[in-house]
Amino acid sequence: MNTSVKIAGVTLKNPIMVASGTFGSGAEYSEFVDLNRLGAVVTKGVANVPWPGNPTPRITEVYGGMLNAIGLQNPGIDVFIQRDLENLKNYETKVMVNVCGHSIPEYVEVVERLADTNADLLEINISCPNVTKGGITFGTVPSVAEEVTREVKKVAKQPVIMKLSPNVTSIAEMAKAVEAGGADGVSLINTLTGMQIDIDRRKFALANKTGGMSGPAVKPIAVRMVYEAAHAVKIPVIGMGGISTGRDAIEFMMAGATAVSIGTANFINPYATVEAVEEIEVFMKEHGIEDINEIIGCVE
Fold first, then answer.
1. Could you tell me if 242 and 217 are in contact, meaning their C-beta atoms sit under 8 angstroms apart?
2. What is the pLDDT, as a whole number, of residue 208?
3. What CATH number was assigned to the domain covering residues 5-54+69-195+210-295?
4. Residue 32: what are its φ and ψ, rounded to 5°?
5. Mean pLDDT throughout 198-208?
6. Which of 146, 220, 287, 295 has the greatest number of beta carbons closer than 10 A?
7. From the CA atom positions of the chain, what is the Rg in Å?
8. Does the annotation mark 128 as catalytic?
9. Over 80: is that where the pLDDT of 131 sits?
10. What is the pTM assigned to this prediction?
11. How many other C-beta atoms lie within 10 A of the C-beta of residue 299?
């Protein structure tokens, strides 16, 4: 029985990854999860310099999930390479580094720094506010998304996966744009923009007013967007958004995802990723599936 999948030439032992920002860089969960059992560890986003993130409160529970406005707090690329990437050398799993930036030169600087590290894949978070374009996010304008993809690809030594925002009119159009820019794959969905108001205090629940919605409630939207993206491009798709179980993961794969990332579920159940790997293996045995790749995009 084969559970391995391939993303842009990189072979994962199984399709289960973790969603950036929900798993630290692996060390925090290593006492609960054998990282060697995962297809890949996806790190928290890293920038060229430390980012302090947004003011608190910046997380709130909502019906069917959560809102977060962390603001991509991170220690910067220097600490990240010395501490986080060094620690991940201890595990036999693939490493995908999530990269964030406020301008194209910032993205390029981080990607250049990662060139000779143990990172196997790069996930470029284009949901960051673009300071040179008046604060719009890179991932909402096709031409801007294509431009950042092209510039990153010029310097990248590892395959480049562009992480797409769902807060767009057409996810297929965005996927096509980054494919045109040279992306080796896409991952989606990032969080949906949401808001919660505390009616007793007459205040926003988050200091930032809005935050990113994630969790089980977004799954049907994510499945639909993964299906649309997978049918729009020829590059592999990594699906995420409300995945809690192996059966959820299989649903995304049948929609067209080659691999999946588990995010919010890690906060509820720190064993969610390894349990999903085991559930996929059981599903394959029960349904006589010899190769997990047989089910990718099987639903038309």
1. yes
2. 93
3. 3.20.20.70
4. -100, -35
5. 97
6. 146
7. 18
8. yes
9. no
10. 0.96
11. 11
